[in-house]
Amino acid sequence: MAAKFELYKDTAGEFRFRLKAGNGENILASEGYTAKASAENGIESVKENAPKEERYEKKETAAGKYMFNLKASNGQVIGTSQSYESTSGRDNGIESVKTNAPGARVEDLTD
To answer: For residues 107 and 4, is the Cβ–Cβ distance under 8 A?
Structure first.
């Protein structure tokens, strides 16, 4: 199964998206958007920025785990990873986003 973006509405009524790898694992999640069009623009921004190494901000959580943010050219965070146990896990997550996001289809779950 190929990677895909899932566009959905959360319990607060906001639009969000997540990038799922071919194995079904979540590899990137968005913030909440009040408008569906804004979430769709966020997906396009992820597709555009995912291949660019300089757009990734690698971080360590307060709990000592590792994660990353994908940022747009204006510095705004457009996607956040899950937490990983190791830096290698985090780096593999980044490579997965770089590889999978640009060509991933969008599945609209908001209907």
So the answer is: yes
